UniProtKB/TrEMBL annotation:
Superkingdom to which the source organism belongs: Bacteria
Domain (ORC1/DEAH AAA+ ATPase) ranges: 71-165
Protein name (Swiss-Prot/TrEMBL): AAA family ATPase
InterPro entries: AAA_22, P-loop_NTPase
């Protein structure tokens, strides 16, 4: 208690003798109690819980997990647009015996005033609005304050919550937001997609999963004749999976059942932002269309974060930190990715000791639309080409590319298609050759993937540096060798070898051309020449620049 503290009822200064109290006398305490009791029923506040009119589906594990952390004083329920954060919070707190105050922050700009009305606080003489809120909260044994949709007021919410928790030791706070408050003691509860059935599920199995049950329930609410049966279960499962199990998207898709079959809905999901509209009239604007829900999150980002979202959306496949840094045009995109993940706009996948990032498909399609508007698509494609070439160029003359290079290309094989098409579109045939080499170097669990025959032959018809042509022709020779085309194999191997002998500066490529040509000669009836070529290949492999990588030759 500060030296100038005053009684919350009469406003008279509190003396040292009563330091730590809020009232100067029992009379003031009783007066305050009577005023609160008489005014509580008609106080102007909006603390009533929302009363949903449709069914609550699933989230059993999430409710159980929330129950386990329910004693923590600050819990933040975070997730992407349309994940069902508000709905889960309503269902959770409606089952509790606490004094619950619900504060909807989406339509407001003043956090303190919103909480003041929600808790039913009354003005105190010579005291601030915050003091009035604290005084009201302090009167309850088990107060629970719910702050719904905080993302647009994050700094203000963090400031107010920090003070309320410090001043009201019995208070607990539940926050819903698209990113955490990042306060000490905060328990972050990430809300993801609904459970999704595997492809090929029958009706009985599919209806064990929350996503399918939600689709069915919302479809039945607009068309009583709808049911999930053997004729449509595959399409319903595909719709739910394509929508990443996000409740809002599934609900909006189900509402189209009045005029579209599940197969029709599935066929139109390529343009889902135009399709998934028409939410309930009573819903706020952000939840009436999928585009508006995602746009709310996008508009809250900084310009750098918006640019990153747009550019990463062009990729269309998972990516690592190095790719993100190149595409976003920064030296290190770690902070950008961290921020977007905290804002529920990126998903992190960890497998085999590697970390990859991806966007939920609906978010990606929204951001790709914005990328097209801002002219980012060509920029990203050019940067992907730069990334691919920066990996392939140092290895172009090796007998084998290093395992690290092959593994990295394997993890980003989806980007190679973008690089191949972009270089062909731009007529950049030198770098086009490098992107095809990258494609040929990738592998599958059964062995090298290689490049399509037509792609190799088309590339070889274009002008390019001799070093690139040599690498490409020897890859074409290897390609035909696997398919038993020995005469074509010999032709391409001889062309590569001619280039290498003329330049005499790439022993790795020379050794590879010799080895492939030797195998062709062996299979076409010239074993003596084949042995000579194998010996020459081995001597080339022993050259210091190649021996460490081609010891198996």
């Amino acid at each position: 208690m500060t030296a100038n503290a005053a009684c919350v009822t009469c406003g008279n200064p509190l003396t040292e003798a009563v330091a730590g109290r809020r009232y100067c006398s029992n009379a003031c305490r009783q007066r305050a109690y009577r005023e609160r009791s008489s005014a509580r029923d008609d106080a102007p506040h909006d603390s009533a819980l929302p009363a949903p009119l449709d069914t609550f589906v699933g989230r059993r594990e999430e409710l159980a997990a929330l129950g386990r952390i329910g004693t923590d004083r600050l819990v933040s329920l975070v997730g992407p647009a349309g994940a069902g954060k508000t709905r889960l919070a309503v269902h959770y707190v409606s089952k509790r015996a606490d004094q619950v105050w619900w504060t909807a922050l989406a339509p407001v700009s003043d956090v303190v005033q919103a909480i003041y009305h929600a808790v039913g606080a009354r003005p105190l003489p010579n005291r601030s609005v915050r003091d009035a809120v604290i005084a009201e909260i302090d009167q309850h044994r088990r107060p629970l304050l719910v702050l719904d949709n905080c993302e647009h007021l994050l700094a203000d919410v963090a400031d107010v919550v920090s003070e309320l928790l410090a001043c009201c030791p019995r208070l607990r706070v539940l926050v819903t937001s698209r990113e955490p408050l990042r306060l000490a003691g905060e328990q972050v509860f990430a809300l993801g997609e609904l459970d999704l059935p595997p492809v090929g599920s029958d009706v009985t199995e599919a209806l064990r999963y929350d996503a399918v049950v939600l689709f069915r329930d919302r479809a039945v609410s607009v068309d009583r004749s709808f049911e999930v049966d053997s004729s449509n279960v595959a399409d319903v499962v595909a719709v739910c999976r394509s929508l990443d199990g996000m409740p809002l998207a599934i609900e909006l898709a189900a509402r189209r059942i009045t005029v579209l079959s599940p197969a029709d809905v599935l066929a139109r999901l390529g343009d889902r932002l135009a399709l998934l509209t028409g939410g309930p009239r009573a819903a706020d604007d952000r939840h009436r269309t999928l585009r508006a829900a995602i746009g709310w999150s996008y508009d809250l980002l900084s310009p750098a974060e918006q640019a990153a979202c747009r550019r990463l959306a062009v990729l269309g496949v998972p990516f690592d930190l190095g790719v993100a840094s190149t595409v976003c045009g920064v030296e290190d995109a770690l902070e950008l990715l961290t921020s977007l993940e905290q804002k529920s706009l990126l998903v992190v996948d960890r497998a085999g000791g590697h970390t990859a990032f991806r966007q939920l498909e609906s978010i990606r399609l929204y951001c790709r639309e914005r990328a097209a508007e801002c002219g980012d698509i060509v920029v990203v494609a050019d940067r992907v080409v730069e990334w691919v070439c920066s990996i392939v160029e140092p290895e172009i003359s090796s007998f084998f590319p290093s395992p690290q290079v092959v593994l990295r290309l394997d993890r980003h094989v989806g980007l190679l298609e973008l690089a191949v098409s972009r270089t062909a579109e731009a007529g950049d045939w030198s770098r086009h050759a490098l992107t095809i080499v990258a494609t040929a170097w990738t592998s599958t669990p059964r062995g090298p993937r290689g490049a399509p025959t037509e792609l190799l032959h088309q590339a070889l018809s274009r002008p390019m540096p001799q070093a690139y042509r040599s690498a490409l022709t020897v890859l074409a020779a290897m390609h035909h060798r696997v398919r038993g085309g020995w005469h074509v194999t010999r032709k391409f191997a001889q062309e590569s070898l001619s280039i290498e002998r003329a330049d005499a500066c790439r022993p790795g490529t020379t050794a590879r051309a010799l080895e492939v040509l030797a195998s062709a000669e062996a299979h076409t009836g010239n074993p003596g020449l084949a042995w000579q070529l194998f010996d020459e290949a081995a001597r080339s492999c022993a050259t210091p620049t190649t021996s460490s990588r081609a010891a198996s030759c």
